[in-house]
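From the methods appendix. Each design record in this collection lists the tokenized structure first, followed by the designed amino acid sequence. Records were kept in a plain field format so they could be parsed without special tools. The example shown here is representative of the layout used throughout.

RECORD:
FOLD TOKENS (206 positions):
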């Protein structure tokens, strides 16, 4: 049985799909919170509960960090040290999780496990308009707010993956499967991912 990594665009229901896939395959689900706990075991200084993605990428973040370094801020030097360690920590964490079949729901897991022989790397996408409508239904916000939130999330995740592993999360060549959440039901998506991992849905159902 395979290890599945799922990198989902905001608004595509990635968290729900990952949970449904893990339940159908009978394997553990490791999301970012679970992976952060793994990381804390490797490095006791690793921040748990912190939104790391939001601290990486973006011109304002880089300018703020550069300014803090010039002024000799201890926090800035700790931030630089964390950034230097993160790629290795990320690889170690997902490698540990992938010792047995599982579902890993984290945007950079596909890059950290790029050499894993049994990994099925999944990119879940959908057209922007479809994602806007889905986001509006889930969060009960107007269209403008939904569009702004989705575009911000897309840019933040692109920057996060790029900063860690120097790859483009939107490069389809890096994934085993690129699926359009707007075209298929969640049941069909789960069936497809089970098949890609060598698991027959009919057997799982029994």
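DESIGN:
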């Amino acid at each position: 049985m395979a290890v599945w990594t799922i990198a989902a665009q905001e608004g595509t229901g990635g968290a729900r799909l990952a949970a449904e896939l893990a339940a159908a395959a009978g394997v553990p689900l490791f999301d970012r919170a679970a992976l952060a706990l793994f990381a804390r075991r490797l490095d006791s200084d690793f921040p748990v509960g912190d939104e790391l993605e939001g601290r990486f990428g973006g011109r304002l973040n880089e300018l703020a960090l550069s300014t803090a370094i010039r002024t000799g801020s201890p926090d800035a030097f700790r931030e630089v040290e964390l950034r230097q360690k993160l790629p290795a920590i990320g690889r170690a964490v997902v490698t540990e999780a992938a010792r047995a079949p599982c579902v890993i729901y984290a945007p950079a897991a596909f890059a950290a496990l790029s050499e894993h022989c049994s990994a099925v790397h999944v990119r879940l996408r959908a057209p922007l308009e479809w994602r806007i409508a889905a986001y509006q239904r889930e969060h009960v916000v107007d269209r403008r707010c939904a569009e702004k939130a989705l575009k911000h999330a897309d840019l933040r995740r692109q920057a996060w993956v790029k900063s860690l592993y120097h790859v483009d999360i939107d490069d389809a060549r890096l994934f085993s499967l690129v699926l359009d959440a707007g075209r298929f039901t969640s049941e069909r998506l789960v069936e497809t991912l089970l098949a890609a991992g060598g698991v027959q849905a009919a057997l799982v159902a029994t």
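APPENDIX NOTE: The domain at 3-197 is CATH 3.40.50.300 (Rossmann fold).
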